[in-house]
Amino acid sequence: MTTKERFEKLVYDACVIYGNCGTGDTHIYDFLPKAGTLTADEFARLMLKAEKMPRWRYEKQYLENYDWCAARFRKTMKVDRIEVSEIWD
């Protein structure tokens, strides 16, 4: 499985399994850089940004979702960081 295929599975899982699909008008792809690296923690932060879930307002839920997204990144991608250019091919 390529990095792009793994990432697509990761985003699918985050949406379908955990409900972090974005708000309809925003999606994680709107916030991803075109180059550089993306870490598990950055992925989690961007997923919740797309979800429009501010930490200050939803502290407990934010932290639970953040932890799930970061852990799912590591599980699916099998690394802690990826080169973003590999998901845009």
UniProtKB/TrEMBL annotation:
It comes from the Bacteria. This is Uncharacterized protein. It comes from Erythrobacter crassostreae.
